Amino acid sequence: MLTTYNFAMRSVDAAMNANPDAPRTDMTGAIQSARRAGLGIVAMKVMAGGVSRVQRGDRVYGANPQALSRRLGQPGVPVAAIKWALKNESVDTAIVCMTNHDQFDENLRAMAEPYTEKDENLLTAQLASIGPSYCRMCGSCGGVCDKGVPVPDLLRFLTYAEGYGQFALARERFLEMPQAARDVRCSDCTSCSFTCAYRVAVRDGLTRAQETLA
């Protein structure tokens, strides 16, 4: 089973304490149950939108890595994010992008080192930073606004462009949406019909995605 799994998906109790309206979805428990049932578990999106691996000149991140890195995490977050996913012993492996040997070494560290209090503090700060913008893709919203915009999809495309620096991929996915959805401009709405249980600033993200990708 290939599933999204990252530090933004806290346990039920933690999520409910932080936000009483958050959906009661315990991904850690669900993965453990699936593993007990005999499924192999492959985790994806373990970086929760992308973190600071952009200062090394990788072409995938575009011409302005400094600007991109300001939107991403602190040093140490990539390793901590992978370690968080792998500390669930029911996770068999994680799909993590590697574009150079430094990233390969970081990934080896993440497999070899224990998850520490320092890692937890790094991810707590990172989650506070990305919380208003990162779509958890939990499915509780129903997915489509009154105007027909596929909200989680469009926010994911924005993550491709801003979090991973893959603008071409984001643009390609945007153009695959139906014409009617591509023509909507959230900035034209006087109010947004869409609400997120995790209080993500949906309208801001959709407007930025439309301005960037349309």
Q: Report the major sheet.
A: 3 strands, parallel
- Identify the strand order in the major beta sheet: 1-2-3
Query: What class, by secondary structure content?
Result: mainly alpha
The helix content, as a percent range, equals: 40-55%
| Gyration radius, in Å | 17 Å
Overall geometry: globular
Proportion in β-strands: under 5%
Tell me the number of helical segments per DSSP (H or I, 4 or more residues long).
Answer: 10
Q: What is the first-to-last residue Cα distance?
A: 33 Å
Query: Segments where pLDDT lies below 50 for 5+ residues?
Result: 11-17, 52-62
Order of helices and strands: EHHEHHEHHHHHH
What is the count of β-strands?
Answer: 3
- Give the overall pLDDT as a whole number: 81
Task: Present the secondary structure layout.
Elements: E1 2-4, H1 12-18, H2 27-36, E2 42-44, H3 65-69, H4 77-86, E3 93-94, H5 101-112, H6 117-130, H7 151-162, H8 167-175, H9 179-183, H10 202-213
Parallel strand pairs: 1-2, 2-3
Helix pairs in contact: 4-5, 4-6, 7-8, 7-10
